[in-house]
Specification:
44% of the residues are buried. The model has no long low-confidence stretch (mean pLDDT 94). β6, α9 and β7 form a beta-alpha-beta unit. The protein has one domain: Rossmann fold (3-Layer(aba) Sandwich), CATH 3.40.50.1820. The protein is an alpha/beta fold. It comes from Hymenobacter lapidiphilus.
């Protein structure tokens, strides 16, 4: 059996008694954190990895059954924690990586000290009493477009997610990362992400949580943050006065400041 460290292209850097474990969002590899990590590396051990099918992970380790739900990706994360004998971890997750991190913390809370979750959404669809950001028909059309023309979809999806049209280089960053993904796995992963309803799981999380959201995010609107805080009243919710779904790329200094405050609490 392949080691989880090889399977997920795990890299360890920095030094310190506490560990920060970074969990990427959809389509991203671990390099997406490079605007954040330098300020932490002198004080913390940093663990970074790629989801199976992304970056330099081993695509051959992809299991359609296991990775047919976010729980499978959460188990990959826990495999890494076990392999490295991690404890007292601060998990920093973005988007679906945040949801994967929360699921891992629900299943094995003994590994984690706190969760810092950027732009988390447990459910992306709109319903009568819930605003996830996407209507059913829009989601259906988006997934059909992705199936028919993956690269064309990437060209449209990256600027939509990044949400800063005045800084096109940011979308290029995400576009480049998406293009490194195995297209077949990426299509399946996208369906798992956008069609999963993890709202019932949120209330099961017992690890302290910081939710970081953006004031203008088309992927995870403010109503999602309201749902998260209402579901976990003991959590902390911080809204950054920025646009887009990737504040660790578009507003890294502001994001680091909020993260540092919670780390010191």
């Amino acid at each position: 059996m392949t080691s989880p460290l090889k399977r997920n292209n795990v890299h360890i850097m920095g030094s310190g008694s506490r560990t920060l474990l970074f969990v990427n969002g959809f389509g991203c590899d671990q390099s997406i954190w490079r605007f954040i990590t330098p300020s932490f590396s002198s004080r913390f051990q940093l663990v970074l990895f790629d989801h199976v099918g992304a970056g330099l992970s081993e695509s051959s380790a992809y299991d359609p059954d296991k990775h047919g739900s976010l729980q499978g990706y959460a188990q990959d994360l826990l495999d890494i924690c076990q392999e490295l004998n991690l404890t007292d971890v601060t998990l920093i997750g973005h988007s679906v990586g945040a949801m994967i991190g929360m699921l891992a913390a629900i299943k094995a809370p003994e590994y984690f000290r706190q969760l810092q979750l950027l732009c988390l959404s447990p459910y992306y669809l709109n319903e009568t009493n819930y605003h996830g950001g996407f209507d059913q028909q829009d989601m259906k059309q988006m997934l059909a477009f992705m199936d028919q023309d993956f690269m064309g979809w990437v060209d449209t999806f990256a600027p939509f997610v990044m949400g800063n049209p005045d800084q096109p280089s940011l979308a290029e960053e995400l576009l480049h990362s998406l293009c490194q993904n195995d297209p077949t796995i990426a299509k399946r992963f996208a369906r798992v992400i956008f069609l999963s309803d993890n709202r019932p799981d949120v209330s099961l999380c017992k690890v302290p949580c910081l939710f970081i959201q953006c004031a203008r995010d088309l992927v995870a609107p403010l109503e999602v943050g309201d749902f998260l805080q209402a579901t976990l009243p003991a959590s902390e919710l911080v809204t950054l006065p920025v646009s887009g779904h990737c504040p660790h790329v578009s507003a890294p200094a502001l994001t680091r400041e909020v993260m540092e405050t919670y780390l010191a609490a």
